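Kindly inspect this chain:
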Amino acid sequence: MEYIALFLIGIFATTVGTLAGGGGFISFPAMLILGMPVHSAIGANKVSNTISSFSSFLHLYKKKELSLKESFWIIPVSLGGGLSGGYIASKISGENMYIVAIILLIFAFITSFKGKGGFTGENPLKMNKFSIPGLYGIGIYDGLFGPGQGTLMFYLFSSLKISYIQAVGLVRLATFSSCFGAAVSYIATGKIIWPLTVCLLLGSLTGAQIGVRIAEKLKPQYVKPVLRIVTFILIVQIVLDHAL
């Protein structure tokens, strides 16, 4: 039953995450509710996101929605951030990590209400003093914890005035890069519970393909209100579950 639950969580969380970011808002709290240790839950997210995010990026790349030449520089920047964040997280105890996770989850939830989506598509993606530090900082956050990372990236790309469908692909590419770096750290430190992680991964692959196809027709503002409601409910559930 636990395996089926993780598969379904992976589908739902990754579908939502592909459309507007914040899939970790769903998968991470749900895994904690199922009883997974904090580090193992984060590690499972990183491993599954590494593969599922690359699959959705590849779909858009094959449809020529993205230029690899224009976006390739995102990989080392996000990878470096993910490695940095994963290393920092591996040095924090399970109990302290739980407290940090709750604080960051609430912070990311509040942050999701900020920013005004533009996605005008008037500018190409460029390396500059705003995009590089922004992506590296979000990569650290993703490696350290994760939920809200995709949403923050959407806000970053919106401010850079690229199109929404490009933003979807670039968020998935950046997520692949930072999650790959973080996943290496979690695997190396033995935090991964592989049977549970594989179930989440299979669900995430399915959700990635569903989400990227919906994204080609759907605007992000239709997804964000639902995401915020679900996030709020899950935050309350985790706090109550930990308090009881």
Summary: The radius of gyration is 16 Å. The first helix runs from residue 2 to 20.
